[in-house]
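[Target chain]
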Amino acid sequence: MRKTVVLVSIIVVMLIIATILLILHFVQNSGSSDLFPFSIGIYTYEVLNKYSHVHDPSIGKQVNVGPNILQKNGNIYPFTQGLLFIDDEHLIESSGLYAISFLRKFELNSGKTDMYYNMTSNYFAEGIALVIEPQTYKKCIFVLTYKEKAMLVYDFETLELYHTFEYELDGYGLTSNLDALHSIEDLKKGNFALYQRLWATSGDEYLYELEIPENFTNVKKLSIMSKVKITCAGFDIHHVNELEYHLHSKTIFANIFLTHLILELDITKGSCLKIINLSGLSEKCDNQEEGRKSRDSILNGIAIDSRNNREMLPNLLVTGKLWPNMFEIRLVKSSEKLVASSVLSEYFKTIGNKL
């Protein structure tokens, strides 16, 4: 009898140890929020400020003209594909669609366009990122294209086209870890080029890290260095769209195409840390009934200003394709006891069930 008790005790202890080791293994090798969906933060929002989101081609400097460039007349609600702050008051935005894609610098408070570049009709602009050319420390804007297998590189100061890379993927979202407020001198002193990183999405379930060549004009094709699968609550997530790097947490905020959802992603593991539900935000736009007539009028565009980029839970500036407004929002932890899979229901109704 005593031997039986001892044997059972040993077996129980071994099972406990094995269970602990198994849990540690999964935690170390997987996104913890995917293993334990209740640990994923579920957030809603509070609108802090509302801004005009209109591009007027008659205002500001047009950088380029040409026979393949459609000249725009009248106010335009941008078809936002990329959005980022370059200082506390100014942003850069890429607007998509064939024949009418453009890149612009504009002022936040007034909405006034300072400078813009109308792309040739064969390009559909997608996500954007600030990137330093390592050899020269020239500051550039990378612009993805949708199906053209090209990465366009623009001079940050002038918005003139500097180089074009061949690129093997479709273009969706793009972001980098460059802080726009750092001067070139500060970047050089800190040897930033050694730590610079660039990420992209392409409509599939992966987050790709791209190479950053030493000299852009000497390289024909941009290579993919690595990829990580994007997951949330154990599900693969496709069609991750506009991206925004968060300096403080070293994570990425990302729109999911055709939904009102933003995910915060662990860059290393690809797992979801937060789900932000922006349902109802589009209804706060001016002329929102007019905007609803277009099925393309969906949430897309995330930017974090320099002040908030150093906060653990930053305020976000968000907008959408063809939206007449941008919104500064504060993230609010949901008081409801929700699990990630239930919040992702919108994803499964739109994107997920089509895969």
Observations:
- Residues 19 and 25 are 10 Å apart (CA to CA).
- The longest strand covers residues 41-52.
